[in-house]
Each structure stands twice: as structure tokens, then as C-alpha cells.
Design goal:
With 457 residues, the protein is α+β, with helices and mostly antiparallel strands. It is built from 17 helices and 18 strands. The protein has 3 domains: 162 residues, Beta-grasp domain (Ubiquitin-like (UB roll), Roll), CATH 3.10.20; 107 residues, Uridine Diphospho-n-acetylenolpyruvylglucosamine Reductase, domain 3 (2-Layer Sandwich), CATH 3.30.465.10; 110 residues, Enolase-like, domain 1.
């Protein structure tokens, strides 16, 4: 569905970006290209799909890095598809106009669509929530104050029901190169038959090949419709997330289990990124500066891999084997990730240091899980990213924390990591940041109320 109308396609590559198709094939020029990297939000559209309890989920996404094959069976709404109940301008558009929230106008359609998704979510109009909802949209005219005013007006507006989209239940193959299985069995057979095909979950990284570089993959296996990969399970002992579960879907459960993840995840990309991006994709990408691997290493996560030969489970620390390299065999896929809940006496913290607060990859990221007994550290796991070719546990730091304390742990960092200089930060800077983060961790444990007060500023 596109703006409430059913659409069938032929003769268009499924690797075409949603943005290019909207503009060049449908003539919907309101959706703009600014960065082609999912950073600026000018291309924001809203996906409308079935949610829990019969509710419709309206999710802002970046059309510049979403491939056309990804939206098969979904409903897409662009700024041209917004209208009031009487066919006039939509209340979000009216609020933007009345607040004088437009300047050059280039970014305005993207802001309107983010505001539309925000208004449909029934969220509060406090400054922090609005800031987080708009973190994926950039205005180069610096006109944010009136945009925030408009967002305040539209918070919690009633949104008309979306038309139902007939769910596709059968697997699909588009253009002989884009495979969209609907069962795990078919996925694993496809993976064995096409070991060179790229696995597409959310596409927030893979989509750059089609959008920014204009070099789409030759073959893609799309994972999002396989039920086992979209499953979420939890109990008192552990949490298990299918590899295709998005950040947006996982956040409520993760934040409830590990409260320190609330501010951390709010800085992971933007809402547009979190609505498509998956934790399994972040792990499978094996970037040394990915945000989630350090957290998952600290939480003692395990990864389950599947193939036609069966399944196997690995500690996450054994999954990363080198720069952008993993233990995944050519015929395997990541099925799920599991992590234990915090046990009695355990605490968890995490930190991200980057050049910008929002919409930036980490220079250094770290996760810490500690068990405190009688005021002493009885057990600890530390995961750090951005300091080596892979995200890694800081085993020397852990040993020093257990035996000698925080000063010795900071001194042990060079035993675990020999970072490189790059444009995100020098090796010396990274080593100093890691030491400073350990000092912050020490203060968190010794003076938790004071640290929470400072971090809230």
C-alpha cells in the first residue's frame, strides 16, 4: 500500500531504494534526499503495519537506505499521503504552519513525517521525548524551536485508523535475486544454496550500498519475515531476541531488565534507524565500533547459529574472530541472542563516547556488569568497543578490579587494548577515555545519587 492505495510492481529492481522509487517512479517529490546515509531525515516516511492488540504501528524510517523489497506487504505513507478527515491539510501540517516551523523547507517533509509518527504514538510532550523523537531529523537553517513548538501541539493526537494491508504468507522471490522466506526451514535451505548472498535484516548498514554507494548487492536474503528470527522471549532468568527483532521492538524489554540502557539506546542512531535496525544485524556486522556488542559482552550474551545441519551456541566473545570477521559458517545465519537477567547483587552500567551526542557511531563504548558483596566487587565483566579490531572483553581490567581496585584497572587497559589512531580519535585519546570511564564507574558505585544527578544535566 502507498498512501492508502494498493500497489503492485513489476520491472523494478527490489534493490532500488524506497526513496528512488518514490521520487523517480511515483513522482512523489516531497520525500527528499539529503545524505543518502540515513543521517539527515529528509527522506523520512512512515511504515504502517500491524502491531499488538490489533493496533497499527506507525514507524518513521529512512527511505534512502530502505530497499523496495523490504516494504513488500507493508503500508507506506509519504507527506503527500497526509490529509485531514475532510481531505484538507493534516493536523500535523497545520501545527507546523501555525508555529512557523519552516524556513527553506527542504527538511520540512521529513520533520512532518516524524511528527506524524510521534503524534500517533500517544507520547508525552516533554522536552526530552521531543528531542529524542527529532534526533534523526536535521534542519540546516537551525530552526528547531518552532519545530519543537509544533511537536508539543501534536503530541497524543488521535490518528485515523490505517487501511488493513493483506499479509503475505507465502515466501517470495523478486527479480531472481531478492529472496524473502517466511519460514526458518526455507531460510536455511536458501542460505545453503546461496552462501554468497548478503543477509538483510534491517538494512541500516547494508542499505548504504544501494543508497549512498549505488552498488546494491547481487543477491539478498531478507530475514525480517521469518517468525523464529522475529521472536522475543523472556523469563526471570534470561532474555532471548530473534536476530531480526528491531531495536524499537526490543527496547521496552531491555530497558526494563537493564535500566542503564534507556539513555544508551536513545543515542543509538535515531528512531528511524531503531525502527528498522536489528541487534542481530549489529552483531553480524561485526564492526569494532558497533554500539551493542560491548553491552552484550558485559551481559554475558550467547549467540545461537542455525543451518540445515542444526544449531549451535557460542559465547558472544567467541563469535568475533577478526576485523569484520565472525565464526559464522557460509551456510549459517544468526538465529537469536540470549542474555541472563541481572542476578541478586548485580549492577549494570554502560557508556558511549562519540563526536556528537545524537546520530553518531561510538568512538569508545563500554558495558560493565558487576556483582557487589559487602561493599566489594565479587565478580565483573567489562566489554569495550572502539579499542581493537573487534569488540572485546577487558580481561586484564576485570582481574585488576577484582584484586586491586579501580586505579590498577585503569593502568591495566593497555594490556587489553592497543588502539589505533583514526579520524574518530587517537590511540592516546581512546586509552584516556577508557580510563576516565572506569573512574566514572567507580563514582557510580561509591556515590550513585551524585553521579545520577550529574549525568542528568
Amino acid at each position: 500500500m502507498l498512501n492508502d492505495d494498493p500497489v503492485g510492481l513489476s520491472g523494478v529492481s527490489p534493490m532500488t531504494t524506497l526513496l528512488d522509487w518514490l521520487r523517480e517512479h511515483r513522482g512523489l517529490k516531497g520525500t527528499k534526499e539529503g545524505c543518502a546515509e540515513g543521517d539527515c531525515g529528509a527522506c523520512t516516511v512512515v511504515l504502517e503495519r500491524d502491531g499488538p492488540n490489533g493496533q497499527v504501528r506507525r514507524e518513521a524510517v529512512n527511505a534512502c537506505i530502505a530497499m523496495l523489497g523490504q516494504v513488500d506487504g507493508l503500508s507506506v505513507r509519504t507527506v503527500e499521503g497526509l490529509r485531514g478527515t475532510d481531505g484538507s491539510a493534516h493536523s500535523v501540517q497545520i501545527a507546523m504552519a501555525e508555529a512557523d516551523a519552516t524556513q527553506c523547507g527542504f527538511c520540512t517533509p521529513g520533520f512532518v513525517m516524524s511528527a506524524y509518527a510521534f503524534s500517533a504514538g500517544g507520547e508525552t510532550a516533554d522536552a526530552d521525548t521531543i528531542h529524542e523523537a527529532l534526533a534523526g531529523n536535521l534542519c540546516r537553517c537551525t530552526g528547531y524551536r518552532p519545530i519543537v513548538d509544533a511537536m508539543t501541539k501534536v503530541a497524543g493526537l488521535a490518528v485515523e485508523p490505517a487501511p488493513s494491508v493483506p499479509a503475505r504468507t507465502a515466501s517470495a522471490v523478486f527479480d531472481g535475486a531478492f529472496f524473502a522466506p517466511r519460514s526458518l526451514d526455507e531460510l536455511l535451505k536458501l542460505r545453503k544454496a546461496h552462501p554468497e548472498a548478503m543477509l538483510l535484516a534491517g538494512g541500516t548498514d547494508l542499505g548504504l550500498l544501494a543508497g549512498h554507494r549505488r552498488q546494491p548487492p547481487k543477491e539478498i536474503i531478507h530475514l525480517a519475515h521469518v517468525p523464529e528470527l522475529a521472536a522475543i522471549a523472556s523469563d526471570k532468568e534470561s532474555i532471548t531476541l530473534g536476530a531480526a527483532v528491531t531495536y524499537a521492538q526490543a527496547m521496552p524489554l531491555l530497558v526494563a531488565a537493564y535500566p542503564a540502557l534507556r539513555p544508551y539506546l536513545s543515542r543509538l542512531g535515531s528512531r528511524q534507524i531503531r525502527n528498522l535496525g536489528t541487534i542481530g544485524g549489529n552483531v553480524g556486522n561485526a564492526s569494532p565500533i558497533g554500539d551493542m556488542p560491548p553491552v552484550l559482552l558485559a551481559l554475558e550474551a550467547t549467540v545461537t547459529l542455525a543451518s540445515v545441519r542444526g544449531t549451535r551456541e557460542l559465547p558472544l566473545e567467541d563469535f568475533f574472530t577478526g576485523y569484520r570477521e565472525t565464526a559464522l559458517a557460509p551456510d549459517e545465519v544468526i538465529l537469536s541472542l540470549s542474555m541472563p537477567c541481572l542476578r541478586p547483587g548485580e549492577v549494570f552500567f554502560c557508556d558511549k563516547v562519540s563526536k556528537r551526542r545524537d546520530q553518531d557511531i561510538s568512538t569508545v563504548a563500554a558495558g560493565y556488569r558487576l556483582r557487589i558483596e559487602d561493599g566489594r566487587i565479587a565478580d565483573v565483566r567489562v566489554g569495550i568497543g572502539g579499542m581493537a579490531a573487534t569488540p572485546r572483553r577487558a580481561t586484564h581490567v576485570e582481574k585488576a578490579l577484582l584484586k586491586e581496585g579501580f586505579a590498577a584497572a585503569a593502568a591495566a587497559i593497555p594490556k587489553d587494548f592497543q588502539p589505533i589512531d583514526d579520524w574518530r580519535g587517537s590511540a592516546a585519546y581512546r586509552l584516556q577515555v577508557a580510563a576516565n570511564l572506569l573512574r566514572r564507574l567507580e563514582l557510580r558505585i561509591a556515590q550513585p545519587a551524585r553521579v545520577l544527578e550529574v549525568e542528568a544535566l
